[in-house]
UniProtKB/TrEMBL annotation:
PROSITE patterns: EAL, GGDEF. The lineage of its organism: Bacteria, Pseudomonadati, Pseudomonadota, Alphaproteobacteria, Hyphomicrobiales. Residues 506-653 form the GGDEF domain. SMART domains: EAL (SM00052), GGDEF (SM00267). Keywords: Membrane, Transmembrane, Transmembrane helix. The keyword Nucleus does not apply. Signal peptide: none annotated. It comes from the Bacteria. This is EAL domain-containing protein. The keyword Membrane applies.
């Protein structure tokens, strides 16, 4: 036994060495064949490229020689035309006869067998002389590309045209042309020589080109003049700007690989040869398939031989491995059997007893099958979970057990993660499947091999856990209230729609939907009713939408829809038509949504009305970036809400410009707050009894660096929206208190506080600090608010106003009668002054209803012990009527427009001087 145990490791090492050696031989042989094949491929490409470059160089030399010969004639002709100014029919007189010149030209053409025609044209493009007799109808070349290029060039360049048909004979020619210059370089006309394209045809046919090779003559700017084999569609096309062709030309020639052929989409090797003295380039191309055809044939034989050798080697290794495994297994079995048989017999009873106890105590179901597919072990939990019959037990075939389970299972929720019946390689856990039973329970089945050819399964009731996971997955992608996709899902589908734009000419519209008056429902009847309205709204939107639309709730009362239209649905429909269809379908959908959502929601017998405002953005017309499209649809939504209830609006670039303008204005407000560009003007408020100034109202103005002095209407709304009203209001308050502290007497200063400012929890502290910093007594400060302040957070606002009144600060209700406040607010809030809006004062003489409103407001205010101020007084007649109504104070242009701090100080000083003088006169009279 000891000798055998020592020999086994030695044999194992020998077997391992044999395997490693065979593997190394196979790897080395494979690498050698691969390197040989690759080197053969490289040589084939190099040989083909050299041949193409030689051909291109030969053609370049031939074509350059011919074109240089033609160009020399063109130059001579041009020089002759410039010397004799032969660019008009009359220019021949006194020089030589037209017939002699035509004979000279015809002789030149005959001397060049590749040329067929010579001509000269004046500055207007009219042919004034030619090597052939003129046609009955005068000809001209003003409409040709080369004429226009020479007319505008301003320099002496040779122009070569793409193939054209001669008007006289219909023959296909390439025209070489040069510019005729007059005194000072002025354009006098052109000289042309037409070279027959048949010469290039012969050159191509005699150069030994293969069937799949091409020859191209191009300008240096990439414009193709001729391409062979003959291709009428290539002339005039340009080599794409991204092609290596340009860099190769700039380098003086060379070769490169074109992954996608310019004209036929076939991968080609391109050899480029620029003509050194002419603006032309020769290109010879060979398709990669043709270049590598012979290489592929040779490589196939080499690879086949290598694979055959490796196959034989593999077969030998497999046979050897099988024999070695069998030998090793036999030795292990023989050694282990005798050693473990005794131990196994002694432990078997204990193991069986422990195993039976474990099976009974397990909450999970367990069953084990042997290598023949027979059930060997199962516990009671397994039968209970699946509700299997009691007779099911050891000895049952696995197929029969699976049949019983399949009969009770409703559907498979998740299949086993297996490959060819075994666990996936590298799996960290055994494969698990989920089954849903008819009674709704979910059973997790985990299975795995036992190592002896058998199979072990555990079964667990995971109903609660599965439902919890499903709920979590649902909430991650869908709105819990309406069941619609949420914002994250909507953005994913919007991204997918944007990606589809580049594949199938799709267009789509994004509709942003916001519910008008929904906040009123939440505030008046509670969020429970509001949730019902949202669910009914989602149902109506689903009714309006199409099956392939994406409908989502983005949050709150905001919904969105993606409506997609594909141009590929109709063969003759273009991408522009798809955009147009998307706009039309979006409008139809928006109108249907507006109509459906306008129907009152009946909840517990009570009607609740909301309306929809809709913003529409269409891709790709309005953009393709998902975030940008959402922003533009939002801008259109804001515009729809501004227009009115129940409207839909398409995005317009002007909206983005307005947003940008507001952003710039907001930045300018911030800068001006820092630079101190805001000024206060003051308008006097006059006592009706004495005619003296009783108070002044502080009005802010913006001394804009570029636009001059701006009124509050131009910047206050934006300051409120952007949150800058806080620092601006604090600046106005401190400046007004500082100015008023220097005024004589007990004159009051009134400062407007907007609803946005009133939302600041620190408003009271800001006012107290401003009074303390400036030394102004609280009784000389008045805070003016509008009825908008009264509509929000009533309890907190009442507390703030009472605290201000307790401090001695007056509180005035501004613009009375124009808002929605209840008269009960006059009792709830501690007002000391009531200001009647100017729109009633202005029409008090012309409209009885305005006079009645002013009279009623004055009576109401006086009866409540309030000071009543009439705003907007401009005429003495208005003042007289207001005096009769009992108005206490008046304010308007009749008493003075808003003025600077210096001007109001002078006016107050003059009134005090008048009072002192009157007092002195009275004392003297006494």
């Amino acid at each position: 036994m000891e000798v055998r145990s020592m020999a086994e490791p030695a044999a194992s090492i020998s077997y391992r060495a044999v395997f490693v050696s065979a593997l190394l031989v196979g790897v080395v042989a494979t690498l050698a064949v691969g390197l040989s094949v690759w080197q053969s491929r490289t040589d084939a490409i190099a040989q083909a490229v050299r041949a193409d470059r030689n051909t291109a160089g030969f053609l370049a030399g031939q074509i350059e020689h011919v074109i240089r010969e033609v160009d020399d004639v063109v130059r001579d002709y041009r020089d002759l035309a410039e010397i004799f100014a032969v660019t008009s029919g009359d220019a021949f007189d006194g020089q030589f006869s037209a017939g002699a010149l035509q004979d000279w030209m015809a002789a030149k053409v005959r001397a060049m067998p590749h040329s067929v025609h010579m001509a000269i044209a004046d500055a207007s493009g009219r042919v004034v002389s030619a090597s052939r007799p003129p046609m009955a109808t005068p000809t001209g070349i003003a409409d040709t590309e080369y004429f226009e290029a020479l007319r505008t060039a301003g320099r002496d360049d040779l122009q070569v045209s793409p193939p054209i048909r001669m008007r006289s004979t219909g023959e296909s020619v390439v025209v070489l042309a040069r510019r005729i210059a007059g005194p000072g370089g002025t354009f006098r006309g052109v000289v042309t020589v037409s070279v027959a394209t048949s010469w290039f045809d012969r050159l191509y046919l005699t150069s030994g080109f293969l069937t799949d090779q091409t020859f191209t003559l191009s300008r240096r700017d990439g414009t193709v003049l001729l391409r062979y084999p003959a291709d009428d569609t290539s002339a005039g096309r340009r080599v794409p700007a991204a092609s290596p062709w340009y860099a190769t030309v700039a380098a003086g020639g060379g070769s490169y690989r074109s992954a996608v052929g310019v004209f036929d989409g076939v991968p080609r090797w391109v050899s480029v040869a620029p003509l050194p003295t002419l603006p032309l380039v020769i290109a010879v191309t060979s398709p990669e398939t043709g270049v590598l055809a012979a290489w592929r044939a040779r490589s196939a034989y080499a690879v086949t031989g290598a694979l055959t050798l490796l196959a034989f080697l593999l077969v030998l290794l497999v046979v050897l491995a099988r024999e070695l495994r069998q030998l090793a297994a036999a030795r292990r079995v023989a050694a282990a059997r005798s050693a473990s048989l005794a131990r196994t017999n002694t432990r078997l009873e204990d193991t069986n007893a422990q195993f039976a106890a474990t099976l009974r105590a397990m909450s999970q179901g367990l069953c084990m099958f042997d290598g023949d597919g027979r059930l060997r072990v199962c516990n009671e939990a397994f039968r209970r979970i699946w509700r299997l019959p009691a007779e099911l037990g050891p000895g049952w075939p696995r197929d029969a057990v699976l049949a019983e389970r399949s009969r009770l299972a409703k559907r498979l929720l998740r299949a086993f993660d297996r490959v060819d019946g075994v666990s996936a390689p590298g799996a960290e856990r055994p494969p698990t499947a989920l089954f849903e039973l008819e009674d709704g329970r979910v059973i997790a089945v985990t299975e795995g091999p036992t190592g002896d050819g058998g199979w072990l399964e555990t079964h667990d009731d995971v109903t609660d856990r599965h439902r919890h996971e499903e709920r979590i997955a649902f909430l991650a992608r869908y709105d819990s209230l309406t069941g619609l996709p949420n914002r994250a899902t909507f953005l994913d589908r919007l991204e997918a729609a944007a990606l589809a734009l580049g594949t199938d000419r799709a267009a789509f519209a994004v509709l942003m939907i916001d519910l008008d008056r929904f906040k009123e429902i939440n505030d008046s009847v509670g969020h429970t009713v509001g949730d019902v309205v949202l669910r009914q709204t989602a149902s109506r939107l689903a009714q309006a939408a199409r099956g392939d639309d994406t409908l989502a709730r983005l949050g709150g009362d905001e919904f969105a829809v993606i409506r997609t239209v594909r141009a590929s649905r109709c063969a003759d429909e273009t991408a522009e038509a798809a955009v147009r269809s998307a706009r039309e379908e979006a409008e139809a959908l928006a109108q249907r949504i507006v109509t459906l959502l306008a129907v009152p929601h009946r909840i517990d017998g009570a009607p609740h009305v909301v309306a929809a405002s809709i913003g529409i953005a269409v891709a790709p017309q309005d953009g393709v970036d998902p975030a940008d499209l959402l922003k533009k649809a939002d801008l259109a939504l804001y515009r729809a809400k501004a227009v009115g209830t129940g409207r839909y609006v398409h995005y317009d670039p002007v909206m983005s410009e307005e947003v940008e303008a507001r952003r710039r204005l907001e930045a300018e407000i911030r800068r001006s707050l820092h630079d101190g560009d805001f000024r206060l003007h003051y308008q006097p408020i006059v006592d009706m009894a004495t005619g003296r100034v009783a108070a002044v109202e502080a009005l802010v103005r913006w001394q804009h660096p570029d636009r001059g002095l701006l009124s509050p209407q131009e910047f206050i709304p934006l300051a409120e929206q952007s949150g800058l009203i806080g620092p601006l209001g604090d600046h106005v308050l401190r400046a007004a208190c500082a100015e008023a502290a220097g005024w004589p007497g007990d004159l009051k200063v009134a400062v407007n506080v907007s609803a946005a400012q009133f939302g600041n929890p620190g408003l009271f502290d800001d006012i107290a600090r401003a009074l303390a910093a400036t030394g102004l007594p609280p009784r000389r400060l008045e805070i003016e608010i509008t009825e908008t302040v009264l509509l929000e957070n009533e309890e907190r606002n009442v507390a703030v106003l009472r605290a201000l009144a307790d401090l001695g600060i007056g509180v005035a209700l501004d613009d009375f009668g124009t808002g929605y406040a209840s008269l009960a607010y006059l009792v709830t809030f501690p007002f000391s002054k009531l200001k009647i809006d100017r729109r009633f004062t202005g029409d008090i003489l012309t409209r009885r209803e305005c006079a009645a409103i002013v009279c009623s407001a004055a009576t109401l205010g006086l009866s409540l012990g309030l000071t009543v101020v009439a705003e907007g007084v401009e005429t003495a007649d208005q003042l007289e009527v207001l005096r009769l109504t009992g108005v206490t104070q008046a304010q308007g242009l009749l008493f003075g427009a808003p003025m600077s701090a210096e001007a109001i100080a002078r006016r107050l000083g003059s009134e005090m001087f008048a009072d002192d003088r009157a007092r002195t006169v009275g004392e003297g009279a006494a």
